[in-house]
UniProtKB/TrEMBL annotation, chains A, B:
One of its GO terms (biological process) is regulation of DNA-templated transcription. The modification 4-aspartylphosphate is found at D70. Keywords: DNA-binding, Phosphoprotein, Transcription, Transcription regulation, Two-component regulatory system. One of its GO terms (molecular function) is transcription cis-regulatory region binding. Residues 21-135 form the Response regulatory domain. GO terms for cellular component: cytosol; protein-DNA complex. It holds the Pfam family Trans_reg_C. This is Response regulator transcription factor. Residues 146-243 bind DNA. Residues 146-243 form the OmpR/PhoB-type domain.
Length: 249, 249
DNA sequence: GAATTCCCTGAGAAAACGCTTAGGGGGTGC
DNA sequence: GCACCCCCTAAGCGTTTTCTCAGGGAATTC
C-alpha cells in the first residue's frame, strides 16, 4: 500500500496500513544514527543494533520488514548473524553494507536470494532506494507500488535505471541519476545545495559544494537541452524540478 | 491542524488543538531570548536551555515538537547532544544553528534526516519559516496545513518559492521573498519599519534603516505595478498588505 | 502656504552567487 | 597496457542581488 503525503511524497506502508519496520545493524554509531535519521524521515519505524547478538534479539520482537546489515561486526561475522536472523525471520529481505574491497563473489552469493547490497561509503539516496526496492519486491508493502517516477514528460525508472523525456531515452551517469531521482522524488520543492549534498553524495564526501552546481549543469544539458526547462534555480535557496510549462509563443 | 486567529494569522497547532512546543538551545542568552520572543509570538510554547545537559533534561519532560539547537555549546558538542536528544525523542525535528564558516567544514549530514539548519547571523523570519516547515513535515501538526499563503489574488508558495498575482508568475529575490512572506503572514496589519527590519533582516544588520523603504518599493514594482495596490503605507506607522479593492470606475 | 518630516526611487558600487570550461586522476573494460 | 568514461577540483566570468547615497515629492503641521 502506498499513500501520498501533502507534500506529494509517496510513502510505503504495510498492507494493514501500519508503517514499515526496518532494523539497522552497524557497529559504528555514527552510521546507525545517520541511517536511522534518514529512514525515519521516509516514514518508517526504525530500531538499531550495534552487534550481532543485539540484532538477533531485537529482530525477535521487533519483527522488521527489512534489515540493513553491516558485514563487519565486532562479535560475529555477518554470515552467522544472517543465519540466525533467517532462523527467526525467514523471508525478511536484507540490505548488506560492505566495504568496497569486500570479496565480490561472496556477496554475489548472498544477494542471490533477493537481497541486495551497498558498499561503504554510501549515499543515503542509494540506501533508501535499494531498501524501497527490497521492501516492494518482498511483498511487505503493496506490490502495486510503482518504481517509476514521473514529472511532466520526464520519466525515471528506479528498477531499470532508465530515464526518458518525451519518449527520448537519456543516458545518465550514476551520480546524475541519483541527483535526478532526488529531485524527482521532491517535485516542486526547493532543495538546497546542502540538502542535495547530504542525500546524494556519500556521507564522507568532503569536497566543494559546487559539485552540486556542476551536476545540475550536466543534468540540464541532458534533460533540458533545447526544450522547455524543468530544472530551475532559486538563487540563494536551491534548485527544484517541475513539469515544463509549454512556451507561449 | 491549523486555526486562524482574529487578526488573520494562521497558526500551527497540534492535532489535539494544543500549541506546538519548541525547545531552544543556545549558550548565548541574547539569542535564546530573541528566539523565544519571536517563537512565542507565533503562538508556540517555548522552553530554553543554555547547555547540552540542560537541553536533554528539559527535553525529557517538556517533550517538544521541534528543537532549535546551536552546534556550539559549552559543555558538549552539538552532535552528541543530538544523539542524546534523539534517544529521548526519536522523531523530533531539529533546526541547527551554525556559524557561517562552519558550514563548509564538517556539517555533512545535518539535513539528511529531514532536519534543517540556519547559519548565524540569521533572520527571525528565516528561523520561523524553517521551523514551520519542519513541524509541518514531521506530522506533529496537522498534515493538511498548507505551505501556500494567500492574500486576495496574491499567492506565495513556501515550498517552491513561487509567487504569483492573478495567475501571473512573479520573480522575487531572496530578500524580497522574505519581506513579502512576512507581510502576507500578517495581512491587514500595520508593520513598522523597525518590526520589519527586526524580522526580515539578520539580527546583526547594521545598515541604513531605509532598506525597508527600498525593498517595499521593489515589491510594489513587481506586485502592484499597473494593478490595484495591495501594499499600503501608513505614514508614520508602517506598511500593510491587504486584498486589493477593485477600482470603482 | 511655508516649513518640516517622512517617504519614494534612481543610480551606481561592491559583493555574492551560480554557471561553465578545462584538466587531472582513478577506475573499468577491452 | 591502453583507451575510455566518470567524478571531481579549480578558476574565471558574467549576472544578479544587496545596499548606500542623495535628490525630489508628498503628506502633515503650524
Amino acid at each position: 500500500m502506498t499513500t501520498t503525503s501533502p507534500q506529494g511524497r509517496t510513502e510505503l506502508l504495510r498492507p494493514d496500513g501500519s508503517p514499515v519496520r526496518v532494523l539497522v545493524v552497524d557497529d559504528e554509531q555514527s552510521i546507525t544514527e545517520l541511517l536511522s535519521m534518514a529512514l525515519r524521515y521516509e516514514g518508517w519505524q526504525i530500531r538499531s543494533a550495534g552487534d550481532g547478538a543485539g540484532a538477533v534479539q531485537t529482530a525477535r520482537d521487533f519483527r522488521p520488514d527489512a534489515i540493513v546489515l553491516d558485514m563487519m561486526l565486532p562479535d560475529m561475522d555477518g554470515l552467522s548473524v544472517l543465519g540466525r536472523l533467517r532462523r527467526e525471520l525467514q523471508d525478511v529481505p536484507v540490505l548488506f553494507l560492505t566495504a568496497k574491497d569486500a570479496v565480490e563473489d561472496r556477496i554475489a552469493g548472498l544477494t542471490a536470494g533477493g537481497d541486495d547490497y551497498v558498499t561503504k561509503p554510501f549515499s543515503l539516496e542509494e540506501v533508501v532506494a535499494r531498501l524501497r526496492g527490497l521492501i516492494r519486491r518482498s511483498g511487505a508493502a503493496d506490490r502495486r507500488s510503482e518504481s517509476v517516477l514521473v514529472v511532466g514528460d520526464l520519466t525515471l525508472d528506479e528498477d531499470s535505471h532508465e530515464v526518458s523525456r518525451g519518449g527520448d531515452g537519456i543516458h545518465l551517469t550514476a551520480t546524475e541519476f541519483e541527483l535526478l531521482r532526488f529531485l524527482m522524488r521532491n517535485p516542486r520543492r526547493v532543495l538546497s545545495k546542502a540538502q542535495i549534498l547530504d542525500r546524494v553524495w556519500s556521507y564522507d564526501f568532503g569536497g566543494q559544494a559546487n559539485v552540486v552546481e556542476l551536476y545540475i549543469s550536466y543534468l540540464r544539458r541532458k534533460i533540458d537541452a533545447g526544450r522547455e526547462p524543468m530544472i530551475h534555480t532559486r538563487r540563494g535557496a536551491g534548485y527544484l524540478i517541475k513539469p515544463a510549462v509549454p512556451a507561449v509563443t
